[in-house]
Specification:
- By secondary structure, this protein is α/β, with parallel strands linked by helices.
- Helix content is about 40%, strand content about 20%.
- Strands 1-2-3-4-5-6-7-8 form an eight-stranded parallel β-barrel, surrounded by five helices.
- Helix 5 packs parallel to helix 6 (about 170-180) and helix 7 packs parallel to helix 9 (about 215-235).
- The longest helix is centred in the C-terminal third of the chain and has 21 residues, at about 215-235.
Length: about 240
């Protein structure tokens, strides 16, 4: 599964604290997306996480949990994504909560299923920015420096640029991607339709689509083909 991540171009991110009916969930899971990620910044519990996992498991799509709360960690996912918020204003979100989790549950952790993510939170108005006290926004030079810490110093496999609710600065995203040596660049934020998805896919390795699922499902589903189309076009050029 860890190797499969390098082939992911499109991922739907579902929030356990938001309602999604069965028909919509089926459409998401059978859309052709590479994976479904479950996670959220607030209101995530064990109960709503296990409920959403059980519903997604009716389909063959890979399902991963992005851990934001220790109380909501549920067994049975294909992979567990561990955010390290590089520009957090409080060390808890860089290493503090991680250390406490290992202290309490280290003997139970399936290490082979864990995947760390170097997070850069770039929308200061987002819930995740407020929770983590993120130092945001960042200019291109600052973002590149953080990304190189993740990529070259910490050797993290993923750098995740999170704009959470707003469209990002794609010039900055492109600058960050060019600085990476081995990490894969995930982009999330403001993807509402095929056009915004294509723009994001042109400057990142993996596009995460979240809010659009709940706001306009039809347009959200268009993002799959849009992102996969950019991959096909890039392959033909090479």
């Amino acid at each position: 599964m860890k190797q499969m991540i390098r082939a992911w171009r499109h991922v739907f991110k579902l929030d356990p604290d938001r309602d999604l009916d069965d028909a919509a969930l089926e459409a998401v899971c059978q859309s052709g997306t590479d994976a479904v990620m479950i996670g959220g910044s607030s209101g995530v519990t064990y109960e709503n996480t296990v409920d959403l996992l059980s519903r997604v498991r009716r389909f063959e799509v890979p399902c991963v949990l992005e851990i934001s709360d220790l109380e909501a960690v549920v067994p049975g996912f294909d992979l567990y994504m561990i955010p390290i918020v590089l520009n957090a204003g409080h060390p808890d979100w860089i290493i503090g909560q991680h250390a406490r989790a290992i202290e309490q549950y280290g003997h139970l952790i399936p290490w082979e299923l864990l995947m760390p993510e170097g997070y850069l939170v770039l929308n200061p108005e987002a819930t995740v920015a407020k929770v983590t006290e993120a130092q945001a926004p960042l200019d291109s030079a600052e973002a590149r420096a953080y990304a190189q810490v993740a990529d070259r110093l910490l050797q993290l496999p993923i750098v995740y640029l999170e704009y959470s609710g707003q469209i990002g600065d794609f010039e900055l995203v492109s600058d960050v991607r060019r600085t990476l040596d081995q990490a894969r660049l995930f982009y999330g934020g403001g993807i509402v339709d095929g056009e915004t998805a294509r723009r994001a896919a042109a400057v990142s390795d993996t596009v995460i689509v979240g809010n659009a699922v709940y706001e306009n499902l039809e347009q959200a589903l268009e993002t799959v083909e849009a992102v996969k189309g950019t991959a096909t076009a890039a392959a033909k050029k090479s």
